[in-house]
Structure formats: C-alpha cells, structure tokens
Amino acid sequence: MEVCHMTEAGASGPVPRVVTASHAAVVEEITRRAHTSFFLAAPFVTRAGLRLIENCLKPGVHIRMLTCLVPESILSGSVDPASLLDFTARLGVELFHLPRLHAKVYIADTECALVTSANLTAGGLRGNLECGVRLSGSAEVTELLDRMSEFSALGGVVRQENLARIANIARAEAERIEQARRQCRRIPATLRDATRQLQIESLRTRLSGNSLTGTFARSIEYILRHRGPLTTIDLNKHLKDLQPDICDDSIDLLIDGQNFGMKWKHTARNAQQQLKRAGVIVLENRLWRLRANGGSAA
Predict the structure, then answer these.
(1) What's the pLDDT tens digit per position in 242-271?
(2) Does residue 190 belong to any structural domain of this protein?
(3) Cβ(16)–Cβ(134) below 8 Å
(4) Crossing angle for the helix pair 81-91 and 160-183, nearest 10 degrees?
(5) Which residues form the domain of 276?
C-alpha cells in the first residue's frame, strides 16, 4: 500500500493519507475496522468488489450502501444488479439508488474512511490508476457520514423485489443484445477498422508537441520515484501497466516519424540512457533508481 502524508489537519488532529497504489488493500483495511456500521457509496459495482467487501466484514455489522442503478450503467456491465441482489439479501444491506451519483466513499463506524476515485469494481480496486484520501478521526468521519446520509436521503430505498425485477430485466436484455451482436457479422471487422483509425489519431494527439522518448523518460522517473529501485525487466512491466497505449506489443505503427508498438522497449531504453546521461537515474547492482538530488530530464 502506497501512502504519503498531506498537510496536517490541525496541531493535534489526524493526518489524512493519500492513497495511489492498489485500493483493494485500503478498502479491505477500512472494511475490517467496522464493528457496528459500514457505509459505502459507489456508482459502479460488480461482483469482484462486493466479494471483497463481504469477505472482510465482521458478522452483525449494519451496512448501508448508495449506488446508481441507471440503465446505461447496468447494460454496460458497470453495475451488476444480480450480484447486488445476492449481496444485499445475504447481508441485510440497506440499499439506496441515486442517479448522478459520482462519489466513491467507504466508511467504518465513525472512526475511519476512504474518499476516492475508485469504484467498487476489479478495475477500480486493482487495475486502474486511482487516487484517494484515507481519513481517521471521529469529527471528520462523522461529518463525511452525515453528508453521505444526506445523499442517501435524496435517493430512493431499493427493495429486494425491485432489485430482483431489475436483475431479471438486465439478464434478459443482455441476452437480446448478445443475440443481435451475433447476427451482425460485419460489425467486428468494421469495429476493428474504426478502432485502428481512432487509435492512430489518439496516439498522434497523445504526443502532440512531445517526443515519445520524452514521454517514456517522464514515466520512468515517476515509476522509480514510487516503485524503485527496479531491474530493467520490472521497470518495463511497470511501464506497460502505466502507459499501455504506447507499450502495445500487438501493433507496429509509424506515426509522424515515431514508432509505436513492438519497438517500444527500444524507445524506453533510449529514455533510460538519456536519464542516465543527465544524472537523473543510475544503474547499480542491476537495479535502476533515482539519483539523490537528481534533476529531471523531461
């Protein structure tokens, strides 16, 4: 879990912590701290996120949950009403639906909380680049819980029979959509072509006014600052996770004189050498690290 301190809330008050690494560990920790009550708000909710919460909850904890059951989210798979139905039925969850909800909040009792960009999904908890703030201290957490209770009051209580109907409709419509997709044989090829054209323009826009080597150099500095020291192999793995569009082994494109795709490791190696010559990074015992007091070459 990666955390760093922010400005102190007061001379003797708690210090919030910024969370930028895997949110799963922080959400697990917050959930386990709940002894009497647990509140969570997230517009996107899937089975993976609900399973994590359920595995960490103590028996007998009262759970309130605020989400957003709009058709677009359900049909896209961002919200899984069937999993919500199972989760709320097993644990006796008090569920609320509020359209336009965007807040993602996890609160244990009135002692600690996480306010974050991470939804209750596999991507939000483990895959995406998310950022949040972990709070501790009853005054701040109580105020946050009060605000979330106000949000819940603005929404509607979701009864089990209503959620069951939503889940049944979603299941039936998903089957109809899948059948329609299978009937459209030409869509995949058309979609691939459209994706490739948009990919080219996206990459061109992404590096407008910047060199690919410079982008890799800034990424390497960021990774070594937060994850280093690293071997070249591990550094490349982190580069691919951080910048998947310019580290795509499945493409081989030349856009505006810059190579994208299969040759990305060559460009990353050039960026490493550029940073090394500039005194920003060093290689010691086969590990790359930032040089102490080194400047930035980006």
Answers:
(1) 888 778 777 665 656 666 656 788 888 889
(2) no
(3) yes
(4) 160
(5) 201-290
